[in-house]
């Protein structure tokens, strides 16, 4: 069993913003995506599990929408 979030490879946020602010992206990956327990607090992951639908690509793991 992987320690990573099950949605990391198909996460629209990280696919679309990977070229922007790598430091922030890598920080969020370490906090929310590389630890299965902590990924439970990711708003993107919660929405996907509850609805079966991916949240907007501009939603961060904390739930904030980027403009």
Q: Which helices and strands appear, and what pairs or packs with what?
A:
Elements: H1 12-16, H2 22-33, H3 36-39, H4 43-51
Write out key terms for the chains shown.
67 residues; globular; mainly alpha; 4 helices
Q: Would you kindly provide a written description of the structure presented here, covering whatever features stand out?
A:
The protein is mainly α and 67 residues long. It has a domain of 34 residues. Helices cover 45% and strands 0% of the residues. It contains 4 helices and no strands. The radius of gyration is 11 Å and the shape is globular. The model has no long low-confidence stretch (mean pLDDT 83).
Uncertain regions: pLDDT < 50 for 5+ in a row? none
How many strands appear in the DSSP assignment? 0
CA(first)-CA(last) distance? 35 Å
Derived from helix and strand composition plus strand pairing, the structural class reads mainly alpha
Q: What share of residues are in beta strands?
A: under 5%
User: In sequence order, what are the helices and strands, one letter per element?
Assistant: HHHH
Overall average residue pLDDT: 83
Structure summarized in a few sentences:
With 67 residues, the protein is mostly helical.
């Amino acid at each position: 069993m992987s320690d990573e979030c099950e949605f990391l490879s198909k996460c629209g946020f990280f696919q679309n913003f990977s070229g922007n602010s790598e430091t922030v992206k890598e920080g969020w990956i370490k906090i929310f995506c590389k630890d299965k327990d902590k990924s439970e607090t990711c708003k993107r992951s919660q929405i996907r599990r509850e609805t079966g639908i991916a949240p907007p690509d501009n939603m961060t793991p904390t739930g904030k929408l980027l403009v």
